[in-house]
């Protein structure tokens, strides 16, 4: 379903002004166990115009459902909702935390000390 949505966006099959030539990445689609609902996580290029694009996707959800149903053969075409993918922001936040001096110092401290318990090493005697 993710690939089908990506192809639909790439072909520009939605005619909403907010989505016209708006580069979108479909990062994930989560489908409910009964296959009746799906949440597509999307990210506009560089996060630009995210609010407008999300509104356009909401307006075009019914049309997208029909287009997806034509590409993906399922017994029931799921109702599609869209959510802004926050994973890029979260990854950036984690990266900035890991680059902080105090965190780097704490992470590097473990590399300087050899294993405290040398009894765990294999001495080759098979015991």
Offer a few descriptive terms.
single chain; 127 residues; alpha+beta; GMP Synthetase, Chain A, domain 3; 3-stranded mixed β-sheet; 5 helices; 43% helix; elongated
Give the SSE layout.
Layout lengths: L1 H10 L12 E8 L5 E8 L5 H10 L1 H11 L7 E6 L2 H12 L2 H12 L15
Parallel strand pairs: 2-3
Antiparallel strand pairs: 1-2
Characterise this structure.
- 17% of the residues are buried.
- 43% of the residues lie in helices and 17% in strands.
- It has helices spanning 2-11, 50-59, 61-71, 87-98, 101-112, and strands at residues 24-31, 37-44, 79-84.
- It has 127 residues and is of the alpha+beta class.
- The chain has a domain at 2-88: 2-Layer Sandwich (GMP Synthetase, Chain A, domain 3).
- A 3-stranded mixed β-sheet has the order 1-2-3, covered by helices on one side.
- Secondary-structure element sequence? HEEHHEHH
Radius of gyration using CA atoms only:
23 Å
CATH class descriptor of one domain: Alpha Beta
- Classify the secondary structure makeup into a structural class: alpha+beta
What is the end-to-end distance? 54 Å
Poorly predicted ranges? none
Strand order of the largest sheet: 1-2-3
Portion of residues in beta strands equals 15-25%
| Overall strand count | 3
Mean pLDDT across the residues is 81
The CATH architecture of one domain is 2-Layer Sandwich
């Amino acid at each position: 379903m993710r690939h089908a949505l990506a192809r639909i966006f790439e072909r520009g099959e939605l005619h909403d002004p907010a989505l016209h030539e708006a580069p979108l990445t479909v990062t994930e689609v989560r489908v409910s166990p009964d296959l009746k609902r799906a949440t597509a996580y999307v990210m506009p290029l560089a996060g630009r115009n995210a609010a407008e694009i999300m509104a356009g996707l909401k307006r075009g959800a019914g049309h997208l459902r029909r287009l997806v149903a034509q590409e993906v053969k399922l017994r029931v075409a799921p109702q599609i909702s869209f959510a802004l993918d926050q994973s890029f922001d979260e990854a950036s936040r984690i990266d900035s935390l890991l680059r902080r001096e105090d965190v780097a110092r704490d992470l590097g401290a473990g590399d300087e000390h050899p294993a405290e318990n040398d009894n765990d090493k294999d001495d080759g005697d098979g015991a």
